[in-house]
Every structure is written in structure tokens, then in C-alpha cells.
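Field log, afternoon session.

UNIT: design team B
ACTIVITY: writing a sequence onto a fixed backbone
BACKBONE:
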């Protein structure tokens, strides 16, 4: 990336539609389902390839995930010779970074010139550090609740739902063997030939790459604004991030209270003085308590835990319905949502613009609504004019759909409605069956699918498309069409009984 070519040729007028256009870029999307890994190959002036790899991971819930990712990384090595010019890590979620850890033995032979990350991953950034503290506390609290709920019998339907939801959210944070997502992110950072990754701010000057003079890259997210990151359900002033937020604190404190075996444990949430009352754990063991006038143990057995005696009526015997032991952990659902949404919103969002044609490819990572809405005020002075995010969306001809096509990751007004190019085509890294297994509900979301199908005139490719799984299958749209000049896919994976490893598009 050092030498700018002396000159480059450009046609005086756009080539007629009938002539074969040269591909501006070839994008190989790996088809692991819930997880991202995209290889972009541009052509340098000297004809040699310039490789940009965006993410490499798979969700922990997918059976055989690490083996599948190892195959993907082996394919990447074969395709690129292990030479990556830019590795983009969009955000710290297992389904985007797991491969850097689980396939580190293959990645160790790669030569990665530069690693790109968002400002949120920069340890020298004060706001990023604050965010990290929230993430750490939230993960610890959720893990505690997750373990507790896993060991409980007879949960209410609601709490069983919370338990399943927690498993799914924690699946973005950890590998199957408990590996932390942080280790995977750091393994990606260490691949760089430079001393540290390059961190990006939204709205900074467009990035140019010497080897690709026809390309300009705009950074749209993640936002600096805490409210836009949607770490909280409510206004950020109410829940200061540095203290971990009220949900994380309450859960952590609640867990300690429930687990306390010693009589001298101090319940931080107790409304009474410390020397008043008997800890629940002590009363449940039958202790009479400190007040000789009341047998607190008997009271608890009668009104709270049961049973009293074999002779007692059924209702007297079993008072367990009065207990709300697990229900307080229901707030974990809110915290889990905050954490998940917050981390998705730290996605590095890149718009790649071909200068000669003005055509744009949009890679939003897993940006959710808060991240998308924050692009509204971004402006870049370019040449004599100004480029806005609305311009970039209007010129977007290829979209990597955010967050596996979930309902909350592509807004209508500030998203879909601004994608107006008649050449628009899209790819969704998703697998509907796997999403249902991990209790995500609709992923991809039907409303988004329908809107995309209309907008792209059917030029939507999904990692779980049935034509990819059929030997000799073809997409439902003809190519060249819109931004897609050609589509290729890897042969069906007979051993796994599933579609091939990748689908590839030449884009103009
Ligand atoms: Zn994801």
C-alpha cells in the first residue's frame, strides 16, 4: 500500500450495457449460517489481487462450528495464499471472531498487513474503557444467573424463556469450551503486521488506499453517543455506564444474597438495618433466629418453603408456590438485551465507494437501530461537494444485511427507504433453522425479507438458500443483473450433507 500508480485509465463514457463489464470486486461469502466471514478481492493497477477479509466466526450453538470454520480458514488460505491486505473486525461477538481463536493454527501462517477495528476496541480510548467495564460486569452477572437457572428445577415458563434467552446471548460471548470472545478478538488484533490495529471513528475523513485509487471508504459507525449505542433501555443519565448499570448491580448483589451460607452475610439490597433479620439461607436450614419470641425457621417453613409435617393438609405442606426465588432473575432478560444490542451497535460500519461509478457496497456488521440512526448527521467534504450518509445509501448497490437479517437491525425510514438504487442486491449470513434452535425467533425476519426481495427484484442470496445446497443449483435470479455480474458457489458439501462452503459474486 505504498505506491500510487502513475496513471489509470478510465473510459470516457459509461460502457454500453451489452459489453462485458469488468468486476469492481469479487465477494466470497462463507456460508456457515449464523456468523460472518466475507472475502473481498479487488484488482490493483498491476493486476494483482488486493484482499480485504471482514470477520471470521460462527455462533457457538452450531454443531461442528469450529470444524466448519477451520475448513473456511483453510479455503481462505488456498484462495489468498494467506495474504490479507486488510482484516476488518466489525465487533466483539463470537459469531464474528471465533475463527481467529479456534483456527489460530491455520491463521498463524497468514500475513495480514493491517487490522481495522472500531474505536470501541481501542484500549487507549477512555470511552471504550468505560464501555468495556459495562460489558465485563454485565457478562459476569448474566453468567451467574445463567448457571443458577441451569441448575433449577420447575422454572416458570417465563423464567425458562429467560434461561434460554441467556444461553443464546452468552453464546455470542463465549466458545463451547468457555473461551472468551475477548481472546478471539485479541487473536485477530495480533495478526496485524503493524504494532496495533488501526482504529476508526465515524465521520472521519474518507479512507483511501494507495493500491486502490478508485476506492474511497467511509466510516459510518459505531457512534460516539452512548444513547445511540443503546446500552440502556432508557436515558443514559439514569444508568451511568461506569458503575455497570442497575441491572448488572442488582443481579450481582442478588446472586450473592442467594448463595450466602454464612449468617453474617450483608445483603446490599436489604431495606433493613444490617443487625436486623435472619438470612434466608439460615432460616431455610431450620435455625430459630436470634429473637427467642419467634421461631423464624418454623415461620419460613410454614409460609414460605414448606413442608411443615406429614399430617398437615396439602396446602399447608407445600408453600413453595409462594416463593419467588428465581423470578427476581427475570431482569436478566433486560440486561441481556442491553448487552447484546450494545455490542452489536459497536459494529464498525463501512461504505466502500468506487470513485468512477459512484457505486457503494455497504458492510454494516451487526449494526442495530441506534447505530443506523446515528449516521443521519454525518457529512464528508469530498472534492467540491459534500457527501452525506443518505447519498451513500442511495448509491448502495450491494448490502451485506446486518445482524443476520433480524427485525431490529435494519430500520425502515433511516435504512430501507434510503436504499433506492435499482441495482441493489444483498447477501444475508443466516440460517433460519439454526436461529430457531437458539430461540432467536425469526432470523431472517419475514418483513425484511419481503421488502428486500421487492427492492432487489429477487437479488437476495442467503447462506441457507436451498439452491446452494442442491448439486448444480442456481439462484432464482439471472445474472448479470443489477450489481451482480456473475454468481458462483462451492460444490455441495457431501460429507456434512449441506450446501457448499461459499457463494461468490462479481460486482460492478
Ligand atoms: Zn452476528
Amino acid at each position: 500500500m505504498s505506491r500510487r500508480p502513475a496513471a489509470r485509465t478510465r473510459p470516457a463514457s459509461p460502457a454500453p450495457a451489452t459489453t462485458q463489464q469488468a468486476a469492481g470486486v469479487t465477494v466470497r461469502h462463507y456460508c456457515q449460517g449464523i456468523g460472518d466471514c466475507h472475502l473481498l478481492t479487488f484488482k490493483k493497477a498491476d493486476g494483482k489481487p488486493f484482499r480485504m477479509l471482514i470477520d471470521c466466526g460462527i455462533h457457538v450453538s452450531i454443531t461442528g462450528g469450529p470444524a466448519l470454520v477451520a475448513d473456511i480458514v483453510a479455503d481462505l488460505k488456498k484462495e489468498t495464499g494467506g495474504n490479507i491486505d486488510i482484516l476488518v473486525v466489525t465487533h466483539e461477538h463470537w459469531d464474528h471472531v471465533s475463527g481467529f481463536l479456534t483456527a489460530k493454527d491455520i491463521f498463524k501462517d497468514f500475513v495480514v498487513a493491517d487490522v481495522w477495528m472500531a474505536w470501541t476496541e481501542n484500549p487507549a480510548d477512555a470511552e471504550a474503557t468505560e464501555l468495556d467495564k459495562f460489558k465485563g460486569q454485565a457478562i459476569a452477572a448474566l453468567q451467574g444467573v445463567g448457571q443458577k437457572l441451569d441448575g433449577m428445577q420447575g422454572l416458570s415458563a417465563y423464567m425458562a424463556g429467560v434461561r434460554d434467552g441467556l444461553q443464546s446471548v452468552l453464546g455470542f460471548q463465549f466458545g463451547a469450551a468457555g473461551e472468551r470472545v475477548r481472546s478471539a478478538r485479541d487473536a485477530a488484533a495480533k495478526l496485524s503486521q503493524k504494532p496495533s490495529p488501526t482504529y476508526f471513528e465515524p465521520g472521519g475523513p474518507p479512507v483511501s488506499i494507495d493500491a486502490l485509487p478508485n476506492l474511497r471508504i467511509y466510516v459510518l459507525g459505531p457512534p460516539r453517543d452512548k444513547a445511540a449505542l443503546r446500552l440502556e433501555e432508557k436515558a443514559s443519565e439514569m444508568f451511568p455506564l461506569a458503575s455497570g448499570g442497575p441491572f448488572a448491580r442488582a443481579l450481582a448483589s442478588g446472586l450473592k444474597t442467594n448463595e450466602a451460607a454464612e449468617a453474617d452475610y450483608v445483603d446490599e439490597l436489604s431495606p433493613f438495618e444490617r443487625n436486623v433479620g435472619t438470612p434466608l439461607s439460615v432460616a431455610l436450614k431450620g435455625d430459630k433466629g436470634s429473637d427467642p419470641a419467634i421461631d423464624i425457621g418454623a415461620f419460613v417453613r410454614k409460609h414460605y418453603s414448606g413442608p411443615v409435617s406429614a399430617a398437615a393438609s396439602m396446602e399447608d405442606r407445600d408453600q413453595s408456590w409462594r416463593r419467588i426465588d428465581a423470578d427476581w432473575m427475570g431482569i436478566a432478560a433486560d440486561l441481556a438485551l442491553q448487552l447484546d444490542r450494545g455490542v452489536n451497535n459497536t459494529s464498525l460500519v463501512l461504505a466502500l465507494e468506487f470513485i468512477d461509478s459512484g457505486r457503494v457496497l455497504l458492510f454494516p456488521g451487526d449494526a442495530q437501530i441506534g447505530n443506523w440512526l446515528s449516521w443521519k448527521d454525518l457529512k464528508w467534504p469530498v472534492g467540491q461537494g459534500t457527501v452525506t450518509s443518505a447519498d451513500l445509501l442511495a448509491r448502495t448497490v450491494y448490502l451485506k444485511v446486518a445482524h443476520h437479517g433480524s427485525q431490529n437491525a435494519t430500520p425502515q425510514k433511516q435504512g430501507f427507504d434510503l436504499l433506492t438504487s435499482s441495482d441493489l442486491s444483498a447477501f444475508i449470513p443466516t440460517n433460519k433453522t439454526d436461529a430457531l434452535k437458539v430461540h432467536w425467533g425469526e432470523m431472517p425476519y419475514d418483513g425484511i425479507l419481503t421488502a428486500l426481495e421487492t427492492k432487489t427484484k429477487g437479488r437476495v442470496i442467503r447462506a441457507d438458500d436451498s439452491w446452494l445446497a442442491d448439486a448444480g443449483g442456481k439462484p432464482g435470479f439471472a445474472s448479470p443483473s443489477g450489481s451482480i455480474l456473475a454468481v458462483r458457489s462451492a460444490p455441495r458439501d457431501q460429507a456434512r450433507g449441506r450446501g457448499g462452503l461459499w457463494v461468490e459474486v462479481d460486482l460492478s
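LOG NOTE: The two ends are 23 Å apart (CA to CA).
NEXT ACTIVITY: expression trials, pending approval
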